[in-house]
Amino acid sequence: RTVYLNGSWLAEADAKVSIFDRGFLFADAIYEVTGVVGGKLLEYAGHAARLQRSMAELGIACPLTQDELLAVHREIVRRNDLQEGLIYLQISRGAADRDFAFPTNAAPTLVLFTQAKAVLDNPKVKTGISVALVADQRWARRDIKTVQLLYPSMAKMQAASVGADDAWLVEDGFVTEASSATAHIISQDGTLITRGLSSAILHGITRLSVLDIARKAGLAVEERAFTPEEARDAAEAFITSATSFVLPVTQIDGQPVGDGKPGPRTLKLRQLYIENKL
Ligand code: PDD
Q1: How many CB atoms lie under 10 A from the CB of residue 262?
Q2: Could you tell me if 99 and 129 lie in one domain?
Q3: Angle CA(189)–CA(190)–CA(194) in degrees, nearest 5?
Q4: What pLDDT digit, counting tens, does each position of 175-210 carry?
Q5: CB 209 less than 6 A from any atom of ligand 1
Q6: Ligand 1, atom 5: nearest CA belongs to which residue?
Q7: Which of 60, 93, 116 is the last residue of a domain?
Q8: Looking at the structure, do residues 86 and 201 belong to the same domain, yes or no?
């Protein structure tokens, strides 16, 4: 792969970052994941806007202008001849002597790489995924897309240990989100229920588009927190993210959701999302 590091295009083996980088020492870094299908960027404007917001929240200055950032995204697709997959972007505060206080003089480290992946033809669309409920023990600013991903990794491993594909995180009796995706349900009366935006969850770019598409398709939408019990009693459940689009959830803690098959409205939303965004 050809990767991008601070203005240079390099073979991945030649891309080196300091051991004093605050991304490495403090997880003092943010990231974005943008989907690519047919060599085209998906939902770029949304990801770019969220990136700016995350940087503003942490006081990290972007070394590139908005136009330059878009050009780098397009160039990395071209250089790697990426047809389908994702672009990972990470920006850290940079390298400095180890100190909890933010350095005043560090230059941010900007990295982009691509990952080829079949995102359109996901075999899980046909079966749905199983999720296990796991306590949400992440920090309280989940609206900032930081690289502090240890707890989501642990939650995913806990889910895997009971044979589930992913974790749905639960806090104070309500589902927050999946380990790396937004959680949604469709109630027995056909209402799409998804948690409202706050610092409790990442403000999903796919979530926003899918809610818009759902409303236009005539589905009632309620943005509110739901409980694990409501999720178990739901007609359908699904997750959304840049790389999964709309993916059915067919089992929660070993219990089938609805008839245990991917829900018809979920599959319709996936189809509409793909038609709208590709
Ligand atoms: N994850 N919630 C969390 C905790 C996430 O990490 C993600 C994305 C989402 C969905 O956001 P979006 O629709 O903007 O992708 C929700 C990415 C894909 C990842 O970490 O790989």
Answers
A1: 25
A2: no
A3: 115
A4: 999 999 999 999 999 999 999 999 999 999 999 999
A5: no
A6: 180
A7: 116
A8: no
* Residues annotated as catalytic (active site), given as ranges: 145
* Percent of the chain clearing pLDDT 90 (strictly above): 99
Residue owning the nearest CA to atom 9 of ligand 1: 181
In the chain, the number of structural domains is 2
Q: Provide the residue range defining the domain that includes 159.
A: 124-277
Q: Give the CATH number of the domain where residue 265 resides.
A: 3.20.10.10
CATH at residue 9: 3.30.470.10
From the CB of 183, is ligand 1 less than 6 Å away? no
Residues paired with 95 in a beta bridge: 21
Residues ≥6 apart with Cβ < 8 Å to 134? 155, 158, 159, 167, 168, 169, 170
Q: Mind listing the pLDDT tens digit for each residue in 99-111?
A: 999 999 899 999 9
Residue-wise pLDDT tens digits, 201-234? 999 999 999 999 999 999 999 999 999 999 999 9
Assess contact for 231 and 184: CB atoms under 8 A. Answer: no
Name the nearest CA neighbour of 266 among 244, 131, 253. Answer: 244
- Output the pTM of the full model: 0.97
Please check whether residues 138 and 93 belong to one and the same domain: no
Of 91, 116, 141, which residue is a domain's last? 116
The structure tokens 């792969």 sit at 1
Output the CA 228–ligand 1 centroid distance in Å.
20
